[in-house]
Amino acid sequence: MGKWPALDKIEMIDGPVDDKTYDHELRKLQTRLLELQIHYLHDRRRAVLGFDGWDAAGKGGLIGRVVDGLEPKSVHVWRIGAPNADEQGRHYLWRFWQRLPAPGDWGIFDRTWYGRVLVERIEEFCTKSEWKRAYREINEFERQLSDDGVCIIKILVHVSAEEQKQRMLERLDNPHKRYKIGPEDFRNIARRKEYLEAYDDMLDRTDTDHAPWHVIATDNKKHARLEGLKIIVDALGRGMTLSEPTLDPVVAEAAFKMWGWTPESAKEDEKDNDKKNGKKNGDKK
Which fold has domain 7-237? Predict the structure, then answer.
């Protein structure tokens, strides 16, 4: 804890990213994510990815690039808004417990339990003693998940006030993006100073070894997406050696009984196909 400078003092990553470099790096990282997902499925490991940050900071675009190309049945994106009537009568963490991933799955949260110490703190939806107590409760919540084998990745996406303004104006100018902006956005922007203080407290008090924060500070969306994917790939793959998943013997036996298939026959078929493809390519030359 205590490693973060004030959020508005963090150096912003600037400079353009050319399309060719961006597309190449994006595909490489997404391929790696899919490989990791397959191994998490095989090993029945779980991961929780939490995204917080300013309105129009690019959380949705980053999440979209994370899930693009993944096996959809085992990844779940939860877009967190105001609690509904049933959730309001329970502890604020209850609705997150209900959305935690099953073995082998990844749970992605577009806004998280940190709303307690951000919007609920600033809008006074809870008392001062309640949001102050929440730091300890959240750390304990994340410790429980980590101790149970869940990989926790927390990303805060930060943009400058000027860039946020420009993105909001773009939404207003584009009829197809106006649904993304509402009156509460202007209220939040007007209270940026209060949010900066809340973010600084959050980083200082909930950045732990088992659930560290990762801050992406850039006004460039391509930089943000690549940086976010790199963070996620590194965190998910930490301590893991990727190897070819083993075949379930029961499945192999069923395939043999049904079609006479064996791993050895599959290798022979692969060699034959390679020879055929090599001959075809040679004929074309």
Answer: Rossmann fold (3.40.50)
